[in-house]
Amino acid sequence: MGSKQRFAYSVLGDSVNMASRFEGQTKTYDVPIIIGEKTAEMIEGMAMLELDLIKVKGKSEPARIFALVGDESVAAGIDFRKWADKHEKMIENYRSQDFDSVFKCARECVSLSGERLKTFYELYQSRASGLMRKPPGKDWDGVYEALQK
C-alpha cells in the first residue's frame, strides 16, 4: 500500500483477519499459539490438540482451532498420544452433551499432560458445569461464540 514516494507493506484479507482473531483468543484458552484448521492440515506431524469450534466476532461460520503444543518428536511420543486420545475424548463428550464425562476426561488430561493446558481444561469444566445447570437445546452444535476480539 502507498504511493511511489512512500511504501507501507502490509497484508490484507480474510486469512489475516482470522489469524488476528485467533491470536486474540490465546488469552481465553491460555495457550501461546492458536492455529486454524488450514494451517493445521499443512503442518501434519506436529503435536497439536483441537481447542474448539469457535465463531469469532464478525463471522457467521465456526472455525476449528488448535493449540500447537510441540514438534514432531513430541507428536511421536507415547505420552503425547495418550494425552491426545483423552483430549479428543473430552472434546467428543462435550459436543455430545455428556458433560459428566467432560470432568473426568479433563482431570485425566491434566494428569497426563503434567498440568499443561490446565486452564484450558478448567475452562471446559466450567462450560460443562454451566451447561449442566442450563442444558442446551437439541439444536446445540457445541460451537463457542467469542464475544470479544
Note down, in words, how this protein is organized.
The protein is built from 7 helices and 4 strands. The longest helix has 18 residues. The chain has 149 residues and is an alpha+beta fold. Strand 2 and strand 3 form a beta hairpin. It has a 4-stranded mixed beta sheet.
Describe the structure using short key phrases.
149 residues; alpha+beta; 7 helices; globular
- By secondary-structure content and strand pairing, the structural class works out as alpha+beta
Proportion of residues in helical segments: 40-55%
The major beta sheet can be summarized as: 4 strands, mixed
State the end-to-end CA separation: 25 Å
What pattern of helices and strands is seen along the backbone?
HHEHEEHHHHE
Radius of gyration: 17 Å
Shape: globular
pLDDT under 50 segments (min length 5)?
none
The number of distinct helices, counting runs of at least 4 residues, comes to 7
Physical arrangement of strands within the biggest beta sheet: 1-3-2-4
Strand segment count: 4
Mean pLDDT: 91
The percentage of residues in β strands lies in 5-15%
